[in-house]
Amino acid sequence: MVTRILTIVLLAGIMACSSPQGDNESKTEDTQPKKEQQQEENQFAEIVKMECKEKKHVREDGDEFIHYRFLITNLSGKDIDAFRGRIIFTNKQGHTVKSFVMKYEKGLETDAETFWEARTRFDQFMDEENALRMADVEDLECAWEPIEVKYSDGTVLDDFK
User: Fold this and answer.
1) Distances (CA, A) of 130 to 1, 65, 66, 98, 145
2) pTM to 2 decimals?
3) pLDDT for 97-131, tens place per residue?
4) Structural domain of residue 16, as residue ranges?
5) How many domains does the chain have?
6) Are 66 and 10 within one domain?
7) Whose CA is closest to 51, among 145, 150, 141?
8) Are residues 65 and 84 in the same domain?
9) Which range is most confident: 105-119, 129-143, 147-161?
10) CATH number reported for the structural domain that contains residue 123 in this entry
Protein backbone atom coordinates (compact mmCIF):
# COMPACT_ATOMS: atom_id res chain seq x y z
CA MET A 1 0.00 0.00 0.00
CA VAL A 2 2.77 2.47 0.95
CA THR A 3 4.70 1.52 -2.18
CA ARG A 4 1.63 2.15 -4.34
CA ILE A 5 1.08 5.64 -2.79
CA LEU A 6 4.77 6.55 -3.24
CA THR A 7 4.63 5.40 -6.86
CA ILE A 8 1.53 7.54 -7.55
CA VAL A 9 3.10 10.60 -5.89
CA LEU A 10 6.33 10.07 -7.81
CA LEU A 11 4.53 9.75 -11.15
CA ALA A 12 2.43 12.85 -10.46
CA GLY A 13 5.59 14.81 -9.67
CA ILE A 14 7.36 13.62 -12.81
CA MET A 15 4.38 14.48 -14.99
CA ALA A 16 4.06 17.95 -13.49
CA CYS A 17 7.75 18.75 -13.98
CA SER A 18 8.04 17.45 -17.53
CA SER A 19 5.00 19.14 -19.05
CA PRO A 20 6.23 20.64 -22.32
CA GLN A 21 3.13 22.81 -22.67
CA GLY A 22 3.91 24.74 -19.47
CA ASP A 23 7.46 25.48 -20.64
CA ASN A 24 6.33 26.82 -24.00
CA GLU A 25 3.76 29.10 -22.41
CA SER A 26 6.31 30.71 -20.12
CA LYS A 27 8.74 31.26 -23.00
CA THR A 28 6.03 32.94 -25.07
CA GLU A 29 5.08 35.18 -22.16
CA ASP A 30 8.73 36.14 -21.56
CA THR A 31 9.41 37.15 -25.18
CA GLN A 32 6.20 39.16 -25.66
CA PRO A 33 7.08 42.02 -23.28
CA LYS A 34 10.58 42.25 -24.82
CA LYS A 35 9.10 42.67 -28.31
CA GLU A 36 6.70 45.34 -27.06
CA GLN A 37 9.54 47.13 -25.27
CA GLN A 38 11.66 47.13 -28.44
CA GLN A 39 8.74 48.51 -30.45
CA GLU A 40 8.23 51.28 -27.86
CA GLU A 41 11.94 52.16 -27.91
CA ASN A 42 11.88 52.36 -31.72
CA GLN A 43 8.73 54.52 -31.62
CA PHE A 44 10.24 56.97 -29.15
CA ALA A 45 13.53 57.13 -31.02
CA GLU A 46 11.46 58.55 -33.88
CA ILE A 47 10.32 61.55 -31.82
CA VAL A 48 13.66 63.24 -31.33
CA LYS A 49 17.01 62.11 -32.66
CA MET A 50 20.04 62.98 -30.51
CA GLU A 51 23.54 62.62 -31.93
CA CYS A 52 26.65 63.48 -29.95
CA LYS A 53 28.91 65.31 -32.39
CA GLU A 54 31.61 66.45 -29.98
CA LYS A 55 32.90 65.59 -26.52
CA LYS A 56 35.86 67.18 -24.83
CA HIS A 57 37.43 67.60 -21.40
CA VAL A 58 37.65 71.21 -20.20
CA ARG A 59 38.88 73.05 -17.09
CA GLU A 60 37.16 76.18 -15.86
CA ASP A 61 37.96 78.07 -12.66
CA GLY A 62 39.67 75.04 -11.09
CA ASP A 63 36.80 72.65 -11.92
CA GLU A 64 36.82 69.98 -14.59
CA PHE A 65 33.94 69.17 -16.95
CA ILE A 66 33.09 67.05 -19.94
CA HIS A 67 31.58 69.30 -22.60
CA TYR A 68 29.19 67.81 -25.19
CA ARG A 69 27.72 69.11 -28.43
CA PHE A 70 24.60 67.34 -29.71
CA LEU A 71 22.70 67.55 -32.97
CA ILE A 72 18.96 67.35 -32.22
CA THR A 73 16.41 66.55 -34.93
CA ASN A 74 12.62 66.70 -34.49
CA LEU A 75 11.24 63.58 -36.20
CA SER A 76 7.82 63.67 -34.54
CA GLY A 77 5.86 65.40 -37.30
CA LYS A 78 4.73 68.09 -34.81
CA ASP A 79 6.30 71.25 -33.43
CA ILE A 80 7.85 70.67 -30.00
CA ASP A 81 7.93 73.30 -27.23
CA ALA A 82 10.21 71.40 -24.84
CA PHE A 83 11.40 67.94 -23.91
CA ARG A 84 13.52 66.15 -21.40
CA GLY A 85 15.11 62.76 -21.31
CA ARG A 86 18.10 60.68 -20.30
CA ILE A 87 21.25 60.59 -22.41
CA ILE A 88 23.21 57.36 -22.06
CA PHE A 89 26.74 56.78 -23.32
CA THR A 90 27.93 53.18 -23.69
CA ASN A 91 31.30 51.85 -24.80
CA LYS A 92 31.92 49.26 -27.55
CA GLN A 93 31.38 46.46 -25.02
CA GLY A 94 27.91 47.81 -24.22
CA HIS A 95 28.77 49.05 -20.71
CA THR A 96 27.28 52.36 -19.59
CA VAL A 97 30.02 54.89 -19.00
CA LYS A 98 27.85 57.95 -18.37
CA SER A 99 24.20 58.90 -18.20
CA PHE A 100 22.48 62.13 -17.29
CA VAL A 101 19.09 63.79 -17.58
CA MET A 102 18.82 66.64 -20.06
CA LYS A 103 16.20 69.33 -20.65
CA TYR A 104 15.61 71.30 -23.85
CA GLU A 105 13.22 74.28 -23.65
CA LYS A 106 13.89 76.37 -26.77
CA GLY A 107 11.29 74.79 -29.06
CA LEU A 108 11.93 72.77 -32.18
CA GLU A 109 9.81 72.91 -35.31
CA THR A 110 8.84 69.83 -37.29
CA ASP A 111 11.84 68.34 -39.17
CA ALA A 112 14.14 71.05 -37.79
CA GLU A 113 17.68 70.43 -36.57
CA THR A 114 19.60 72.37 -33.97
CA PHE A 115 22.75 72.06 -31.92
CA TRP A 116 22.56 71.84 -28.14
CA GLU A 117 25.49 71.98 -25.74
CA ALA A 118 25.77 70.49 -22.28
CA ARG A 119 28.41 69.73 -19.73
CA THR A 120 28.78 67.40 -16.78
CA ARG A 121 31.19 67.66 -13.89
CA PHE A 122 34.25 65.41 -14.29
CA ASP A 123 35.37 63.25 -11.36
CA GLN A 124 38.92 62.00 -11.95
CA PHE A 125 38.53 59.32 -9.27
CA MET A 126 35.69 57.53 -11.09
CA ASP A 127 36.74 54.85 -13.60
CA GLU A 128 33.68 55.48 -15.78
CA GLU A 129 34.43 59.19 -15.94
CA ASN A 130 38.00 58.52 -17.05
CA ALA A 131 36.78 56.01 -19.63
CA LEU A 132 34.40 58.65 -20.97
CA ARG A 133 37.09 61.33 -21.06
CA MET A 134 39.54 59.08 -22.88
CA ALA A 135 37.10 57.67 -25.47
CA ASP A 136 36.65 59.29 -28.85
CA VAL A 137 33.05 60.27 -29.55
CA GLU A 138 33.08 57.83 -32.50
CA ASP A 139 33.83 54.96 -30.08
CA LEU A 140 30.76 55.67 -27.93
CA GLU A 141 27.13 54.87 -28.51
CA CYS A 142 24.79 57.67 -27.50
CA ALA A 143 21.18 56.76 -26.73
CA TRP A 144 18.34 59.06 -25.78
CA GLU A 145 15.44 57.89 -23.63
CA PRO A 146 12.60 60.42 -23.54
CA ILE A 147 10.93 61.29 -20.23
CA GLU A 148 8.53 64.00 -21.39
CA VAL A 149 7.74 65.76 -24.67
CA LYS A 150 5.59 68.91 -24.76
CA TYR A 151 4.18 69.75 -28.17
CA SER A 152 3.19 73.23 -29.34
CA ASP A 153 -0.46 72.15 -29.61
CA GLY A 154 -0.54 71.54 -25.82
CA THR A 155 -0.20 67.76 -26.02
CA VAL A 156 2.17 66.22 -23.48
CA LEU A 157 3.64 62.78 -24.02
CA ASP A 158 5.10 61.26 -20.88
CA ASP A 159 3.95 57.64 -20.76
CA PHE A 160 7.13 56.07 -22.12
CA LYS A 161 7.49 53.02 -19.84
Assistant:
1) 72, 11, 10, 10, 24
2) 0.70
3) 999 999 999 999 999 999 999 999 999 998 888 98
4) 2-41
5) 2
6) no
7) 141
8) yes
9) 105-119
10) 2.60.40
11/19 Cα distance (integer angstroms) = 12
* One-character DSSP codes across the chain: -HHHHHHHHHHHHHHHHT-HHHHHHHHHHHHHHHHHHHHHHHHHHTTEEEEEEEEEEEEETTEEEEEEEEEEEE-SSS-EEEEEEEEEEE-TTS-EEEEEEEEE-S-B-TT-EEEEEEEEE--TT-HHHHHHHHS-GGGSEEEEEEEEEEETTS-EE----
Q: What span, in angstroms and rounded, lies between the C-alpha atoms of 57 and 156?
A: 35
**Whole-number average pLDDT of the chain:** 79
- The verdict on 81 and 17 lying in the same domain is no
Same domain, 34 and 99: no
Q: Do you know the residue count of the chain? A: 161
pLDDT tens digit sequence for 3-16: 444 344 444 444 44
Q: What tens digit of pLDDT does each residue of 27-68 get?
A: 444 444 544 444 444 555 678 999 999 999 999 999 999 999
